[in-house]
Amino acid sequence: MTGAGVTGARKTAAVTGVFAVLGGLVLAGCAAGPPASRPVPRAVTPSASPSPARSRGAAAPPEGAGPTDVYAADRPGMLSPVVKGFRSLVYVPNSESGTVDVIDPETYRIVRHFTVGALPQHVVPSWDLKTLWVNNNRGNFLTPIDPRTGRPGRPVPVDDPYNLYFSPDGAYALVMAERNNRLDLRDPHSMRRLRSLPLPCRGVNHGDFTADGSVFLASCEFSGDLVVVDWRTPRLIRRVHLGHMSMPQDVKLSPDGRVFYVADMERHGVWLVDAATYEVVRFMPTGRGAHGLYASRDSRHLYVSNRGEGSVSVVSFAQRKVVDVWRIPGGGSPDMGGVSADGTKLWLSGRYHGVVYVFDTRTGRVLHTIPVGAGPHGLCVYPQPGRYSLGHTGVFR
């Protein structure tokens, strides 16, 4: 969710304003999903697609990224030769402090601390795995980090970088320009803007790609929408409106490539969206403030951070249901993070508590609570297994 530097009152006001503008577009709903007697969220196909632009080096994803298991290259020990010499570290962007804390995952101690820019939201691995990018949202630049040393480099000007993804072929960096309601396609190295796609929604911020890599499905937090994008053209394929009570967050594709899971912070659960038709399959309650989504290293489970109640729901991909709930003793605000390279730990920022939580994925117990800066958000565990990065805090295939 955006706005680590925005108070709850301002956040509510912003969302209320958006709902007022949308007016008749919204659908009625409730916290546990739409009742059977009411309309399900609807898909809206644009009457006219944006003018196609020349595709820049678009190609099929690397061999093996098929629908059987899109996370097959993310197993423990399957580190790319590019990252095998990198020191294992956890990078925590502190949105309110404008800093990054670097944690040694062996000692659970902060080993480096440095200032970046205004409102750092996420730390994102580049497609080629060689760079980590700190998204300084309000500062309007990206700070590169050399993962070989854990040290920051010279900032690169980029407008409104709330979040960052990469096309499956590595040709583009996709900047989620949240306040500008725009998807910016940039050179993945220089970050020079090449083209932009205006979006018919408010607050675009998270997404994931289909198994074949051709389509990007993104969430729009402030208008309760999902947008389906052909990033190669680029053009909008469809808008899916989830309803006026929805606030969609993280997006994650199922291992078999058939379903997108979309966390909804206001509905307190996860939407299942068909990855072929983009129709909503159903809603699954998980916990208050459902926010971040992370696949286990064996592709069996999805970890859902419930920020509003201090818990993590464990969803079975095979059964498509919650099979366990891990609770933080005394409560907390688990937000964004990632799974350790060996799969035994889940690292999540404590957004409103100035801490990082470390869960044991075998028992669900909180092993460590580490104090960091104010407003920790999209932390990155690095390196992780995988051949290339699709962005966010670590989506690898």
From TrEMBL:
<keyword id="KW-0732">Signal</keyword>
<dbReference type="InterPro" id="IPR015943">
    <property type="entry name" value="WD40/YVTN_repeat-like_dom_sf"/>
</dbReference>
<dbReference type="InterPro" id="IPR048433">
    <property type="entry name" value="YNCE-like_beta-prop"/>
</dbReference>
<feature type="domain" description="YNCE-like beta-propeller">
    <location>
        <begin position="88"/>
        <end position="380"/>
    </location>
</feature>
<dbReference type="InterPro" id="IPR011045">
    <property type="entry name" value="N2O_reductase_N"/>
</dbReference>
<feature type="region of interest" description="Disordered">
    <location>
        <begin position="35"/>
        <end position="73"/>
    </location>
</feature>
<dbReference type="Pfam" id="PF21783">
    <property type="entry name" value="YNCE"/>
</dbReference>
<protein>
    <recommendedName>
        <fullName>YNCE-like beta-propeller domain-containing protein</fullName>
    </recommendedName>
</protein>
<dbReference type="InterPro" id="IPR051200">
    <property type="entry name" value="Host-pathogen_enzymatic-act"/>
</dbReference>
<feature type="compositionally biased region" description="Low complexity">
    <location>
        <begin position="35"/>
        <end position="68"/>
    </location>
</feature>
